[in-house]
Amino acid sequence: MAPASAFIEFYERDAEAVLLFFTRRTLDVEVALDLTAETFAQAWRGWRRVRVDSVEEVQGWLFTIARRQLGRYLRRGEVERRALNQLSFSVPALADDEIAEIERAAGLDAVRLALGVELKKLGDEQRAALQLRIVEELPYPEVARRLGTTEPTARARVSRGLRALAVALEPVVCDQRSML
Amino acid sequence: MNQRFRVLQELGEQFEHASQAADLAESRSAWTGTWLPAIVLRLSISRRRFWPVVGAAGVALTAAIVTTVVLLSSGAPAAAAGWAPVPTTPTPAALATAVTKCYKVGSQDTGLGEPVLTEARGESTAAINVIDGQVALCLYNSALPAVSIDRIGPLHAAPGPDQLGVPYSEYAAGISGRLPAWLRQQIHKELTSGAKRPTRATFKAMMAFHQQGTFSDGYGYWVVGQAGSDVSAVTFAFTGHETVTASVQNGWYFAWWPWLSDPTSVTVITSTGTSTSVMKNASPDGLESRPYPACQPGSNGCAFVNTPPAPSTTSTSPVATTAQSCDEFTDALPPDAFAGQPVLSYVHGAYTAVLDVTGGVGYICLTGGDQKDIHAFYMLDDESLGRVRSAPGPDQLSVPYWPHDGGGTGRPIGMTPKSQLPETPAQREATSARLDGGGYGPYMLGQAGSDVAAVTFTFANGQAVAATVQNGWYFAWWPWTSDPTSVTVTTNSGTSTSPMRSGTDLDRPLPGCQPGSTGCAFVNTPPALSTHTTSTTTTPTPSTATTTTP
Question: Cβ contacts of residue B357 below 8 Å, gap of 6+?
């Protein structure tokens, strides 16, 4: 059983890695931060039942949670917040300069370059949705309005497009940091 | 906390508070400081017990729990001398004051009727009421104008005339105006935003600040439950503390004490004599009182026993009971869900799972114990629509569904029946270390081709789990979190083993796997959605899947 205090060491060591992991895969720092917070909240809930035999083992467990969170997000187009809500934790708001700083740390320029290539391979509807949401960073209601559809549909197009891109971009993302 | 990004720093500080609180809370049993003048009792409802019962009553599970918390703006510490191990009868004036403080709003009548139990214990007055089938506890301490009122949970009767019902779960904490502003704001925010009680993290933070000496109030544990008709007295013994005598009135028992340790034994006096039973410690995180293993109604030497079983009828099978519990779990289900024979039923020891397909949407529900404890309830996730897809070929499997949580616990649980779990919290923790990897229910569920007779999942360590295969479906689950590495499918024409993807790719076939491909158990999902309904299924025979010993 891992002591609660060890969780802080764990968080200090891996929080940034998880944030960058999500940032590279969602291309959206705000979403990445939400996913990071929920991932650690879920990790916190299960912490007492974790055996901290090795750093690698715990990191493996953490990234299993992270990948499943990412999978859920890509399927649903929204971040699960159940553990965060249960803990009543709030996710800090991001300032523009912080978003830019995290994007730099995540090396999103290279990812976006590859993204441009992969975007062309998507269907028109998904590409348009991703263009509005990811490139132009419009809120979902505005994305939906411009696409002439509902917000859930817009979310679905974005998340499915991201999922397709995530598969295609995996080599690019993984090249940047082997662990992630 | 040292983070490059401010947002991670701020997020980490919240975990730091929770961590600090949790570590301090763990040392609570060693703490014997001043006790609680401003008592605010908090509840830890056993959700597994609670859900099936409440599910029949309404959608909002938590709406049945009502908590009122009074935060003090000031107050002085009180001494343990204000508490007494033996209760007395409260004066009418003290009782009226307590009930008024707990329940009354303005001049309105409380509408509570008479309490089933009242007591005075030192400077505190307590009243137990039964409100709408739930237990309500009011505890008022005359040392300070602080009150607590909690609805504890649905009633469960004493199992036998000489026995006690398992206590309603509880934990308690004291709060006062000396809490730091951020924590007071947190409590206020939680209680004014629709939450019925402070979160566990907040509760632990409250305790942490108390133990740090930043406020000098205390807290205590209490126990309340129903007593058999022949029970005349109940006492609780502790290690390192004096014995506490409970109040016993009208088929109820109640006691509280100003320290944070569980009693080690309980003594029950009836007309036929006195019996003492060992008590289990509360679970480390749930503070959930449980009966001693093997204690059943009528067992000797068992003050607490398991909830009496429902009257048995020959027509009630585990599968039927599970289906009924699942049907009652949430009102969000279609009216005919779980109404007919399940598409798949899985029985493994104390655990039963049923799969229902209604209107082309699948629901998988897993129960344990008496088939009334819902452990997991999922709607199948096929692009979040819950739509069912067909097996691609007669000798192949559809890729597994991702669970779309339909409101269940979503937590993996062990294959070990609860009654056979290890005794001590430490042992249970050690066991559960293999069971819980962060809140997921690792299972494999999908559709099997018509020629598929058996499915086995194999893990990296060679461990194999056989799935239940019925009516064109396969289902398996296991009490650990790793993904299988391969799947073996047995058909009339032989056996084939295919490697599997893992992680978020579990629901994707291997590259190049298409319907008809050889060496591919999982293939791409066919585009058309099937429209299975329960009416099209044949009567399944509950089968037992087996796992190898970890």
Answer: B343, B363, B388, B532, B533, B534, B537
Compute the distance between CA of residue A140 and CA of residue A133 in angstroms, rounded to an integer.
7
Q: Measured between alpha carbons, how far apart are the two ends of chain A, in Å?
A: 26
Q: Which amino acid is at A62?
A: L
Query: What pLDDT is attached to residue A32?
Result: 93
Per CB-CB distance under 8 Å, the chain B contacts of A44 are 15, 18
Which residues of B fall within a CB distance of 8 Å from A7? 15, 19
Pair of tokens at residue A21 = 């992991």
**A42 contact residues in B (CB cutoff 8 A):** 438-439
Residue in A with minimal Cα distance to B199: A87
- B-chain CB neighbours of A88 within 8 Å are 186, 189-190, 195, 199, 201-202
CB contact under 8 A, B199 and A88: yes
Residue B348, helix vs strand vs coil? strand
Quick check: A87 and B199 CB within 8 A?
yes
What's the CA gap between B336 and B349, in Å, rounded? 28
Summarised one tens digit per residue, pLDDT across range B265-306 is 888 888 888 888 777 654 433 334 445 555 655 566 666 654
Q: Each residue of B1-31: b (16+ CB within 10 Å) or e?
A: eebebebbbebbebbbbbbbbbbbbeebeeb
Closest residue by Cα to residue B484 from B504, B461, B453 = B461
Show the 3-state SS of chain A. CCCHHHHHHHHHHHHHHHHHHHHHHHCCHHHHHHHHHHHHHHHHHHHHHCCCCCHHHHHHHHHHHHHHHHHHHHHHCCCCCHHHHHHCCCCCCCCHHHHHHHHHHHCHHHHHHHHHHHHCCCCHHHHHHHHHHHHCCCCHHHHHHHHCCCHHHHHHHHHHHHHHHHHHHHHHHHHHCCCC
Q: What is the pTM of this model?
A: 0.35
Calpha distance B388→B283 (Å, rounded):
39
pLDDT value of residue A61: 78
What was the pLDDT predicted at A39? 93
Q: Domains in chain A, please, with CATH?
A: 1-93 (1.10.1740), 107-180 (1.10.10.10)
- Looking at chain A from residue 9 to 28, which residues have their Cβ under 8 Å from any Cβ of chain B? 11-12, 15-16, 19
B48: pLDDT confidence band, cut at 50, 70 and 90? very low
Domain boundaries, chain B: 33-103+113-278, 318-536
Count of alpha carbons within 13 angstroms of residue B72, beta-carbon side: 25
pLDDT at B70 over 60: no
CA pair distance A74, B516, nearest whole angstrom: 29
Nearest by CB: A16 against B5, B14, B402: B5
The minimum CA-CA distance between B108 and chain A, rounded to whole Å, is 34
Whether residues B199 and A92 touch (CB distance < 8 A) is answered with no
Residue A80, both tokens: 């699960």
